[in-house]
Fold these 2 entries.
Entry 1:
Amino acid sequence: MSIPFNRPHMTGKELWYIAQAHHNGQLAGDGPFTKRCHAWLERRTSAKKALLTHSCTGALEMSAILAGIDAGDEVIMPSFTFVSTANAFVLRGATPVFVDIRPDTLNIDETKIEAAITPRTKAIAVVHYAGVGCEMDVIMEIAGRHGLMVIEDAAQGLMARYKGRALGSFGELSAFSFHETKNIVSGEGGALIINDPQFVERAEVIREKGTNRSQFFRGQVDKYTWVDVGSSYLPGELIAAFLWAQLEEATPITTQRIRLWERYHEAFAEIEASDLVRRPIVPAHCEHNAHMYYLLLPNLPARTAFIDSLKAKGVHSVFHYVPLHSAPAGLKYGRVSGSMLQTDNLSDRLVRLPMWNDLGSDQDKVIEATLAAARSARQ
Ligand SMILES: *Cc1c(COP(=O)(O)O)cnc(C)c1O
């Protein structure tokens, strides 16, 4: 049997909490489990407000509405990211302006942001790749000086920190993902983190189909009605019950992933020393969450040979992303600012190894296959 690239970890309490939600008889959103998840996320990120959403994609869409992104506006972002970072803004008629990434962390190159700013720029959307923080000090300073909003796509960043501060706590708005490929999961799921209090009330309305239902349930208004644009962004209570079982275990889950990550990292030091691969780089001021373990091969043919070689040994590895600036929709809706040299080069060379909590002794097989594949990919 081959070793999968990902397998969601279960804490064991998911079904118990789902049974409780079932027993409570409330299946729609914003029940007791949702409230527990909100409180946990607010503590973790020191957010003004956290709101569960059906996905990180949904939370990013809410962010774009809240940020007042309109037709003709521009949003600066990396091209090396998942499509939702861009789509959320394209849906509002805005143009994603792609900036190159840093060769060390593969995060947006903060030194290239300022050159991408035009009178149409409204926001900077940063992505904390692999749960390693972007250079938030510099980015927040640039945004402040130009009056731009910062939205963090922290889909991969739960439990990680930059200079001691939780990822997701820097931008006016941030988005987490609980998709089953992330560290803490609910199948599909996400959260909007609101750090700027001026967005709290409108966020609740947008999430509840454009109605003031949340205020109604708190007894702040005596009837609820259509007050703004909106959609249905909240998950049902069964998803929140599942998620609660995971959030409760967020620390041990992260510790275990870090153990696996470090084991890979040590095992691959020798093939990095012989220039066969490059290992991930985590700056000293970034506390990561071991969301993924990737290697950079020397070039595209070497990566293809590497993946094939692992596959022949029963190890499933994957690559991503097709840079958004060169994807069909990216060509249609976005534009680049400056050179995309690092993005093009690094995205051709990256490969992700199996990384999941219960990998256990299969990790030995992955390591052995990787050492052999890296050596033969070079021939
Ligand atoms: C996973 C991911 C998303 C999308 O998350 P969903 O919860 O599946 O919508 C967005 N951005 C990044 C960087 C991701 O890794």
Note: The chain has two domains: 14-248, 250-378.
Entry 2:
Amino acid sequence: MIPVTKTFLPPIEEYLTHLQKVWDLKWLTNRGPLIRELEDKIKDVLRVKHIIITNNGTIPLQIAVKLFGNHGEVITTPFSYVATTSSIVWENCKPVFVDIDPDHLTIDEKKIEAAITSKTTAILATHVFGNPCNVEVIETIAKKHNLKVIYDGAHCFGVNYNNTSIFNYGDVSTCSFHATKLFQTGEGGALFCNSSELYEKLFYSHNFGHNGPEDFLAPGINGKSSELHAAMGLTVLPYVNRIITDRKKIIDYYLKNLSPGKLKVLKIREGTEWNYSYFPVIFESETVLLEAIKKLNESGIFPRRYFYPSLNTLRYLNTQKMPVSESVAQTIACLPLYSGLEENDLERICNIINSVL
Ligand SMILES: *Cc1c(COP(=O)(O)O)cnc(C)c1O
């Protein structure tokens, strides 16, 4: 069976070395030494100013929307994972969708200003498959209209833009360390920001609002991760460059061997050092996509329709049509991509897809 992804697991002995420290100290959570060590190491590796590791990649979105959304309208993309939209709704804000750029698949920055009203409080956009949004234009619009910018960077571990981590853009950026993501701690995620003042707010928000053991500054939630998850992160982190190199090789193979012209691939924004986190292909129609998926499944190969459906079509929302996002969501699939995926399997995948094109 060839799934769309397989979690990278380092040698278990290395994991046990980190776990041994947990057993020695009997300190399992509440910001123990391993979480703090992992935060420091990630700060060094990615060159970011502030990080708070959280228990998944959704809680950071909810915390950011809680702090910035103010029960207003949040401009967002319909082409993302459901957590982007549901976090806005969960925090009693209204998602206002802006369609996407058909090449980069990120929010179409040219259409943002038309969606701004007196109720708009923030923009929450996704760096889709690790491909950065047009962060310069979005920053200019946000400044002009006094809006906060949140980036869902769930896919972005290791992505640089203009020689700096993509997490350095926006007021707040988030990441996911879920088992299916490039860098994983089982479940996990993070908040990133540049402002020290904002860091304090995000920090107490992810820890019940605590300001010392018996003082609470504001309402908060439990967004903490544990030492057991941090042990996984410390074990996987040294392998991140290898994981990225492995993926690049596979994507290069796909690009070389899939029939050109009939499939559309993601256009990476200029100035990006990409992490090769996904390999999405866009078929000419949903019929061809479904035919390809059927043939692949018959051979035990399981690509994933991702992202699907377009989020403006969620049954609990009632919003306007988003033609580009809906069309892309109906015709896109991510192909298998993970360390250890072998060349003979890649050859089979390419042959099957080429045969339906
Ligand atoms: C995975 C993902 C999330 C959610 O992250 P979790 O760690 O699973 O909570 C949010 N947004 C996007 C774009 C994702 O791909």
Note: The longest strand covers residues 120-126.
